């Protein structure tokens, strides 16, 4: 190294203060030796400056003192070396500086390296400090540079104050980032520019590492951790608001500080109703993703802006009256007010809402309307303070805004809440309420900031209710906190259910805490448009759901009028509107009435409870809460009375002995009602007045008396009840039994002393009576316990010949009185017909089918609900089976085989959705029918009868239509290609969708589509005629036909052969054989004989009574090709049936096109299942469809393959369509022409596509797709080229499991192979070139990508990807793939759990990139990444750990990883050269930067020399410290490095050190140790730990330690440093700093001692990590605090972590344990149980704690609590469509906040 080079070496002087008489090392220096001096040796290693050669030592013995080159320092007389860090260039980002401080006066300061003065008046938020005031200690800084103009300097993180009078070690010299240096690439961290189209394909990605990002400004909402308001009632409204404000002010401060210090970031608004800050971010100057990393920030999302939707049926009418209820107590009111009993509230409670505040947030209101007014705090102020507010898109209050309407929507809903009756019709529910209006949707368009600003204003103004008739499709978690906070602050939030009909739930109507309102009509039915659904909390909301939400809940909560509601319109007009927007203000008005009547002291919970309890439904509606009515239509009178002011009646109900009576009912003649508690106490609130109070209870005489209630008082009235004789049935009498069985009934008696039972009814024969198990005679007196609660069980056994109806009379006697109970009837049937409704779920829909059947068949039919398993096991016990729902695990094929004899009739049902799928399951199992379908939104769904049949008796004739149901959505299902007789089609009145009803009379099977029951089509919706058809079908299949097939036609015969069919005869008189329409042979080609007698087709053949079977024989002619199908009409004494025996093809095998049949389709249609169709050479221009199971389509001559070249006009229609199972397509060339044609599309299972070529297709080979059953497909040896211009994917596997794609050659595609929503897919040994992406997958499980070659991709694409795991990929295996010449080798994004990326050879710009992924991610190891420019990249906000990969030889320290990546240990040889049984061939990389001085140590044995440690091209000097002489020595390249030896590295150039920990097989097995001398020693820490614990090892008893040099970066653990000197066992030292085993420390000991190494020779990775006390293995993780934490492998369990308790400190153990528990809990969330609530997660955590051994239970509990809190605050992130992180869970296509109507 030349003299000029040496002049650049940093001089470092260590002067350490003597403490406790400790001897200090001399003023030795590390410096550039003079040329030719003792330190200048002729030996060099890789341009590394070295000293004289020396033997291997722990501490060097011979050190030559060098004279440093000094310059004068302006701070005093102290000499400093020249600065090697120049002022940062203008417009370049400054990196944080650390560890340089100007010392106070009288303090000895080490020389500073970088002390450029900061210009006057310039603020630099950094520790690059200006001169300190006299006598003031300045935080240390080592790079004091002048900040460039307009440059933001990140704050420094090293500001430890130097202790007074203590000599500090030399400063650390952190260099600036060089100009043009590439920063770690980020993925999707900047907002897309407005109006820019985002590209989201597998070939083009908006990632900054591939292209520059244009300047863009975006408005974003920064979400900060929310404040959890304590349980309701513990804080006043004012206190709750204060807490929210205070929390927001405190927690938003880091975000505000960041904005203030960051150019391009502007704070636009702050909110406390949800803890959020609205910011404008210039993404060309500031990285939006940095916002997420600010303390407390949970989310960043756009301030989304949307368009409003108009309401329907607006009919301006001036002052004309609309439909009213003129006979209401208060004159004319709208039907809505009348339906809710609002006038009754006005009359009985004397309030119309006075004193209640209602805030409507909408489009503004016309307060000049004669029926509208707003509250105001100043009548002379036109802005209506306290009653009007307008907000702009930033949520800022529009100053001086006066009330106005921007559309009619807001005026209409405001009138419904509080409008008057100027028109002659009262339109408002609470006309005296204090109305407020917040304009948040100007012209129907609003932003998120406007909505929450309006809510915040309403709460600030102490509104009692917020009314929001707006909504956005999807699940928007951003709206959860403001609603919860408003409710917690005491304001009830009422929202609309949405207008997209049942099974929809938009936000905020899908938020559990809001009061969601559906729309009812004038007849108390629910409007077809009214929304509602079952919300599965985990599925729909994910981790955004608060922990106190249930696992599922139903919307809406309640219903109110919303159809053609009459209200105010701008301009003084009135009109009708429909929508849940109109229902919502009705309820808001009712809440106002309730608040007014209560005196104002009501919580939202009390209001919601009263609303719910008041709600009622029509008699035919479901009893429980449902998705149409919710709890029902609110009764405003009941709801208001329930919460009226504290006045009413209280007392106790007892018997005459004074004993309390529990559960007694107390009713008032006003309608109020309550029950007594176990102590007999009751309380009922009511208005002042005189009431008749009645108390009643079973076994007691009712007691009525008058009670007067005075205003504001509770009247006391206790009641004594006299005992009475009573009885009531608790279990009804058995409804039907077979003769010989028993009927039972159970009832309760009170004060009965005796009982006698008599038999009435029409039953014949004798019967035996049992009471409570003891036999009695009918009419015999039976003694009973005369208590007020006695249970009586009655059993009546019948004889085998009994028949008729059994009715029982039970006469009770006691207290001088008698009571008679009559039970029954029981239908006693000697020979009943047993009908089983088959349903896997046993749901209410099965019960509805049971009731429908029972109602439409005779009494002798006994109908019950059974499972498919019960049906198959007990087939002989059932005469008819009605299949409603079959789960996926049922063997339907076995079910069909078990029921194919006509002795068991089967009716299959179907309906839209999955709740009724009998026909769909039949099709999937048997391909008969081949096609099934379903749809909604049909107009009056109906059957059209094609053929008259007994199924339609009493209903319809051929040609007539039968309405199926009246459900507004028009759900129907259909099928096609059934091998039976079609009886009716199904459609919507004008169009036919498919077959609706069909029958196979040979097996007595009927298919009834659209007659199943579901959540949207219930029995109440079904027409009488539809139910009659169901009953007729059940009765028909119960009758055995006169004949059926004992055998059917063969699939194939050779020309000239004959075949026969056998018909079994039961009641057969004659039969007639004809040819079906599908027959292609003529009568001249075949002949017919019946029982050996030749017959003509169509001729009747008589059958004698004693005939059991009839044989039908068909003789074929020679030299024919065609098919024959037989229809046999069998005529019996009472019935005629048509039997279809199948289809027989006649041809000589093989079947060749065009030799035997002209067209390919003709041959396919002819051939029976299992046929091979051979195609001769040539070009065929028609697309084909294979609908025959088991067919093989192949070339007639493999050497001359045919070509199918077809023009496809439609999008994604195939040239070859496989729509049957077990089909093979091979040895064909397919050419697709058109805009986006598919090549070969497979929809059915077990297909094989092999040895074919496809060109010009959008999907070369498509396996699966929506609605398909294409499982177990094989695609191999295919050649796919030149895809369609619109879309091109070589092989697609979608919604198809167990596919195998191999040996394909694919080029010219957007993606080679794409797999989505599938499991158990194997893709191997394929070659993909000239495409945008090789292999891509999304939402798959157990996918394998093996041994594929992906290379030389599309040069025109801006970004090419080898293998992409896009999201929701579980257990992916990416191994042994060879990838080269493209942008990205393997790209991983989204939540991908388990699996590995290993043994791949990748030569790409980026080897493996992981982005937007959640833990635990796939394992990345043993990949050869040596030829990739960047081996590993990460866009995560956590650390990516990808160890044991080979990165090759890399010169300098140019980073070959990007982002937060830990890649050590790494392989030091290519994976194929590594002996996997000898896992010690790996290295640890330490990154060095030029102009830095590093302290380095090796924690265990290594066979490396100094030269071996450094990468090629590195320049610098290496020094060892001789502890005996307290001097430095420059080391030679041949010197070896001892375990725990500290070395100083003076880096002149960038570079890296690689530590291998390998010493060969002849080394000792025990770990090494090093000897410490009295005084200062330069050594490494044995482990990662606090420094006091790390050096508390062996015999070492240190007193002082200091870390004067830079810690090497990219360690496997945390690089550490600390200021000054640490005193062991001294309280003044404060918290002990952390130590690293790869860093050298000066440690002072007072006695000789031994420091052990815990790393043995040739360690495995696990042994190394265990030795240095690091638990990090391959995975991606964060401890949830933003700090690096111990990271565990997917195989580590709670017990494994607890097993290391003795060797790990509690803090580390708890952090590791918390992460393991977090992983276990979050894995469960992502699994199939996707509906888990926070309560479920907490329960799972409790189970983990309970399973821990008692000594560790407290530790485990603490760790589990940390994990649960991490989940609760949303550490598991979701992402928006443009790739930016957001805590918002949404499945909507666009973010839209719109008026719900």
From the structure above, extract its key features.
1797 residues; alpha/beta; Rossmann fold; 30-stranded parallel sheet; 26 helices; 14% helix; globular; disordered N terminus
Write the layout of secondary structure elements.
Blueprint: H1 3-6, E1 12-13, E2 29-30, E3 48-49, E4 71-72, E5 79-80, E6 217-224, H2 237-251, H3 253-261, E7 265-271, E8 276-282, H4 289-292, E9 297-302, E10 305-306, H5 335-339, H6 342-349, E11 357-362, E12 388-390, H7 408-418, E13 434-439, E14 446-447, H8 448-460, E15 465-468, E16 470-471, H9 480-488, E17 492-496, E18 515-520, E19 533-536, H10 537-541, E20 552-555, E21 558-561, E22 565-569, E23 573-577, H11 580-598, H12 604-614, H13 636-642, E24 648-655, E25 665-668, E26 673-675, E27 681-685, E28 689-696, E29 703-709, E30 714-716, E31 719-721, E32 726-731, E33 736-738, E34 742-750, E35 754-761, E36 767-771, E37 774-776, E38 782-783, E39 790-798, E40 804-814, E41 817-829, E42 833-839, H14 844-855, E43 861-866, H15 868-873, E44 880-885, H16 892-898, E45 905-909, H17 918-926, E46 931-935, E47 942-945, E48 961-963, E49 972-976, E50 981-987, E51 992-1000, E52 1005-1008, H18 1024-1038, E53 1043-1045, E54 1052-1053, E55 1058-1065, E56 1068-1075, E57 1086-1090, E58 1093-1095, E59 1100-1102, E60 1109-1116, E61 1122-1132, E62 1136-1146, ...
Parallel strand pairs: 3-98, 11-13, 11-15, 12-13, 15-17, 17-18, 18-21, 24-30, 24-31, 33-41, 42-43, 42-44, 44-45, 45-52, 54-62, 63-64, 64-67, 65-68, 66-69, 67-70, 68-71, 69-72, 70-73, 71-74, 72-75, 73-76, 74-77, 75-78, 76-79, 77-80, 78-81, 79-82, 80-83, 81-84, 82-85, 83-86, 84-87, 85-87, 86-88, 87-88, ...
Antiparallel strand pairs: 1-2, 4-5, 6-8, 6-9, 7-8, 10-14, 16-113, 19-20, 22-23, 24-27, 25-26, 25-28, 28-29, 32-34, 34-39, 35-38, 35-40, 36-37, 36-39, 40-41, 46-49, 47-48, 47-50, 50-51, 51-52, 53-55, 55-60, 56-59, 56-61, 57-58, 57-60, 61-62, 92-110, 95-96, 96-101, 97-100, 98-99, 98-100, 102-109, 103-108, ...
Helix pairs in contact: 6-13, 7-11, 11-13, 12-13, 14-18, 24-26, 25-26
């Amino acid at each position: 190294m030349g003299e000029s080079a040496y002049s650049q070496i940093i001089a470092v002087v260590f002067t350490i203060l003597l403490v406790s008489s400790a001897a200090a090392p001399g003023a030795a220096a590390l410096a550039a030796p003079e040329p030719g001096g003792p330190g200048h040796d002729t030996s060099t290693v890789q341009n590394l400056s070295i000293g004289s050669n020396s033997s291997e030592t722990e501490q060097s013995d011979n050190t030559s003192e060098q004279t440093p080159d000094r310059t004068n320092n302006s701070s005093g007389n102290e000499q400093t070396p020249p600065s090697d860090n120049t002022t940062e260039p203008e417009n370049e980002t400054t990196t944080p500086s650390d560890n340089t401080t100007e010392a106070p006066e009288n303090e000895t300061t080490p020389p500073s390296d970088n002390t450029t003065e900061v210009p006057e008046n310039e603020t630099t938020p950094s520790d690059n400090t200006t001169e300190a005031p006299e006598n003031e200690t300045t935080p240390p800084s080592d790079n004091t540079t002048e900040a460039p103009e307009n440059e933001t300097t990140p704050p420094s993180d090293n500001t430890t104050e130097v202790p007074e009078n203590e000599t500090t070690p030399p400063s650390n010299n952190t260099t600036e980032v060089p100009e043009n240096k590439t920063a770690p690439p980020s993925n999707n961290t900047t907002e897309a520019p407005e109006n820019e189209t985002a590209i989201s394909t597998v070939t083009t990605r908006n990632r900054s590492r591939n292209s520059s990002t244009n300047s863009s400004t975006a408005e974003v909402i920064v979400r900060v951790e929310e404040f959890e308001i304590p349980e309701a009632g513990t804080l006043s409204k004012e206190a709750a608001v204060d807490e929210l404000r205070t929390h927001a002010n405190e927690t938003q401060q880091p975000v505000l500080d960041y904005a203030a210090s960051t150019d391009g970031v502007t704070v636009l608004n702050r909110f406390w109703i949800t803890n959020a800050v609205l910011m404008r971010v210039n993404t060309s100057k500031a990285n939006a993703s940095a916002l997420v990393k600010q303390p407390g920030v949970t989310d960043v999302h756009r301030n989304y802006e949307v368009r409003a939707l108009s309401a329907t049926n607006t009919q301006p009418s001036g002052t004309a009256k609309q439909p009213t209820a003129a006979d209401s107590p208060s004159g004319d009111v709208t039907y809505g007010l009348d339906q809710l009993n609002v006038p009754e509230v006005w009359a009985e409670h004397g309030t119309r809402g006075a004193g209640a505040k209602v805030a409507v947030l909408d489009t503004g209101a016309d307060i000049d309307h004669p029926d509208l007014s707003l509250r105001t705090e100043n009548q002379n102020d036109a802005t209506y303070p306290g009653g009007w507010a307008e907000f702009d898109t930033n949520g800022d209050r529009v100053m001086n805004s006066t009330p106005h309407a921007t559309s009619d929507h807001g005026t209409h809903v405001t009138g419904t809440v509080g409008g008057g009756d100027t028109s002659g019709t009262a339109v408002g529910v609470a006309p005296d309420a204090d109305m407020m209006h917040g304009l948040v949707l100007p012209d129907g368009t609003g932003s998120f900031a406007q909505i929450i600003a309006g809510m915040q204003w309403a709460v600030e103004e102490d509104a009692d209710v917020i009314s929001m008739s707006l909504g956005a499709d999807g699940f928007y978690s951003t709206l959860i906190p403001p609603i919860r906070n408003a409710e917690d602050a005491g304001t009830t939030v009422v929202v609309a259910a949405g207008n997209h009909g049942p099974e929809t739930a938009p936000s905020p109507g899908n938020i559990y805490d809001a009061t969601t309102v559906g729309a009812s009509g004038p007849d108390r039915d629910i409007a077809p448009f009214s929304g509602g659904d079952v919300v599965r909390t985990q599925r729909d909301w994910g981790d955004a759901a608060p922990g106190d939400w249930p696992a599922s809940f139903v919307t809406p909560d309640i219903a109110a009028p919303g159809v053609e509601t009459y209200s105010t319109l701008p301009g003084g007009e009135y009109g009708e509107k429909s929508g849940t927007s109109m229902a919502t203000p009705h309820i808001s008005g009712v809440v106002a009435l309730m608040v007014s009547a209560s005196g104002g002291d009501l919580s939202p919970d009390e209001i919601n409870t009263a609303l719910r309890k008041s709600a009622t439904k029509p008699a035919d509606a479901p009893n429980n809460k449902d998705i149409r009515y919710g709890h029902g239509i609110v009764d405003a009178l009941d709801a208001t009375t329930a919460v009226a002011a504290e006045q009413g009646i209280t007392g106790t109900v007892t018997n005459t002995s004074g004993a309390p009576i529990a559960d007694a009912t107390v009713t008032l003649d006003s309608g109020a009602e309550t029950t007594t508690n176990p102590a007999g106490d009751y309380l009922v609130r009511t208005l002042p007045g005189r009431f008749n109070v009645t108390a009643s209870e079973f076994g007691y005489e009712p007691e009525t008396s008058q009670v007067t209630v005075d205003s504001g008082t509770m009247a006391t009235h206790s009641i004594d009840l006299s005992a009475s004789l009573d009885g009531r049935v608790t279990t009804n009498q058995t409804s039907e039994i077979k003769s010989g069985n028993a009927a039972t009934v159970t009832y309760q008696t009170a004060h009965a002393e005796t009982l006698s039972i008599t038999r009435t009814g029409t039953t014949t024969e004798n019967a035996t009576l049992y009471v409570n198990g003891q036999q009695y005679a009918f009419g015999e007196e039976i003694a009973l316990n005369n208590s007020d609660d006695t249970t009586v069980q009655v059993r009546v056994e019948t004889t085998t010949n009994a028949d008729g109806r059994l009715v029982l009379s039970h006469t009770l006697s006691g207290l001088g009185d008698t009571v008679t109970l009559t039970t029954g009837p029981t239908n006693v049937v000697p020979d009943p017909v047993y009908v089983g409704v088959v349903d896997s779920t046993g749901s209410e829909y099965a019960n509805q089918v049971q009731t429908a059947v029972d109602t439409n068949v005779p009494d002798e039919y006994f109908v019950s609900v059974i499972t498919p398993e019960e049906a198959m096991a007990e087939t002989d016990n059932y005469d008819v089976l009605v299949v409603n729902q079959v789960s996926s695990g049922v063997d339907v094929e076995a079910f069909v085989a078990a029921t194919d004899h006509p002795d068991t009739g089967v009716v299959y049902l179907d309906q839209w959705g999955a709740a009724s799928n009998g026909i769909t399951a039949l099709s999937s199992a048997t391909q008969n029918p081949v096609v099934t379908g379903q749809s909604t939104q049909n107009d009056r769904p109906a059957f059209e009868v094609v053929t008259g049949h007994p199924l339609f008796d009493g209903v319809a004739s051929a040609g007539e239509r039968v309405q199926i149901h009246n459900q507004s959505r028009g759900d129907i299902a259909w099928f096609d290609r059934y091998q039976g007789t079609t009886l009716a089609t199904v459609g919507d009145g004008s169009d036919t969708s498919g077959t609706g009803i069909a029958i196979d009379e040979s097996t007595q099977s009927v298919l009834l589509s659209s007659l199943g029951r579901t959540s949207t089509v219930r029995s109440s919706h079904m027409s009488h005629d539809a139910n009659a058809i169901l009953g007729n079908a059940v009765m028909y299949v119960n009758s055995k036909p006169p004949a059926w097939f004992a055998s059917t036609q063969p699939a194939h015969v050779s020309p000239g052969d004959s075949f026969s069919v056998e018909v079994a005869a039961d009641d057969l008189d004659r039969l007639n054989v004809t040819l079906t329409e599908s027959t292609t042979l003529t009568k001249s080609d075949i002949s017919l004989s019946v029982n050996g007698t030749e017959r003509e087709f169509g001729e009747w053949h008589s059958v004698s009574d004693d005939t059991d079977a009839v044989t039908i024989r068909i003789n074929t002619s020679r030299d024919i090709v065609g098919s024959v199908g037989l229809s046999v009409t069998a005529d019996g004494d009472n019935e005629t049936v048509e039997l279809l025996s199948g289809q027989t093809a006649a041809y000589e095998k093989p079947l060749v096109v065009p030799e035997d049949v002209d067209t390919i389709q003709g041959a396919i249609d002819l051939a029976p299942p299992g046929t091979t169709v051979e195609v001769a050479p040539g070009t065929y221009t028609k697309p084909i469809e294979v609908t025959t199971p088991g067919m093989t389509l192949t070339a007639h001559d493999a050497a001359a393959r045919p070509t199918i070249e077809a023009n496809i006009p439609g999008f994604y229609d195939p040239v070859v369509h496989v729509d049957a199972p077990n089909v093979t397509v091979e040895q064909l060339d397919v050419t697709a022409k058109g805009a986006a044609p598919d090549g070969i599309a497979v929809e059915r299972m077990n297909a094989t596509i092999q040895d074919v070529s496809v060109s010009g297709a959008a999907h070369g080979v498509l396996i699966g797709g929506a609605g398909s059953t294409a499982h177990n497909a094989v695609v191999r040896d295919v050649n796919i080229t030149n895809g369609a211009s619109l879309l091109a994917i070589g092989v697609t596997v979608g919604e198809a499991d167990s596919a195998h794609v191999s040996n394909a050659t694919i080029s010219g595609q957007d993606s080679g192979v794409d797999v989505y929503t599938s499991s158990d897919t194997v893709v191997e040994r394929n070659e993909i070139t000239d495409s945008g992406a090789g292999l891509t997958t999304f939402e798959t499980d157990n996918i394998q990508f093996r041994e594929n070659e992906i290379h030389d991709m599309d040069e025109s694409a801006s970004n090419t990807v080898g293998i992409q795991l896009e999201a929701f990929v579980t257990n992916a295996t990416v191994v042994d793939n060879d990838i080269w010449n493209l942008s990205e080798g393997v790209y991983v994004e989204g939540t991908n759990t388990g699996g590995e990326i290993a043994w791949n050879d990748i030569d790409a710009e980026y080897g493996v990139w992981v982005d937007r992924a959640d833990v635990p991610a796939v394992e990345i190891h043993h990949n050869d990444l040596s030829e990739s420019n960047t081996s590993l990249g990460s866009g995560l906000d956590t650390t990516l750990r990808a160890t044991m990969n080979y990165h090759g030889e890399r010169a300098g320290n140019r980073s070959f990883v990007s982002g937060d990546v830990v890649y050590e240990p790494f392989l030091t040889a290519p994976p194929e050269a590594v002996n996997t049984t000898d896992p010690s061939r790996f290295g640890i990389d330490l990154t060095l930067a030029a102009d830095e001085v590093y302290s380095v140590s090796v924690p265990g044995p290594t066979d490396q020399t100094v030269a071996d440690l450094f990468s090629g091209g590195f320049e610098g000097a290496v020094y060892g410290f001789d502890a005996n002489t307290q001097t430095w020595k420059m080391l030679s390249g041949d010197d070896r490095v001892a375990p725990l030896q500290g070395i100083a590295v003076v880096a002149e150039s960038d570079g890296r050190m690689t530590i291998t920990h390998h010493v060969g097989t002849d080394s000792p097995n025990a770990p090494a140790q090093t000897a410490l001398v009295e005084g200062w020693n330069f050594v490494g820490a044995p482990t990662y730990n606090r420094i006091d614990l790390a050096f508390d090892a062996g015999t070492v008893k240190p007193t002082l330690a200091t870390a004067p040099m830079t810690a090497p970066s990219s360690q496997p653990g945390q690089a550490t440093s600390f200021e000054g000197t640490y005193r062991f066992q001294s309280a003044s030292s404060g918290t002990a700093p952390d130590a690293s085993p790869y860093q050298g420390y000066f440690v002072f000991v007072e006695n000789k001692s031994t420091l052990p190494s815990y790393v043995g020779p040739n360690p495995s990775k696990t042994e190394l990590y265990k030795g240095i006390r690091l638990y990090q293995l391959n995975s991606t993780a964060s401890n949830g605090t933003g700090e690096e934490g111990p990271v565990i492998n997917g195989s580590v369990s709670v017990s494994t972590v607890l097993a290391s308790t003795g060797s790990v400190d509690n803090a580390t153990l708890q952090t590791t344990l918390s992460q393991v528990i977090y992983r276990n809990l979050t894995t469960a969330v992502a699994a199939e149980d996707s509906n888990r609530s926070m309560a479920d997660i907490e329960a799972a955590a409790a189970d983990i704690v309970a399973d821990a051994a008692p000594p560790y239970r407290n530790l485990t509990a603490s760790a589990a609590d940390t994990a649960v809190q991490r989940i609760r605050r949303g550490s598991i992130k979701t992402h928006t469509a443009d790739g930016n992180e957001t805590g918002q869970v949404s499945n909507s296509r666009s973010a839209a906040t719109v008026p719900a109507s």
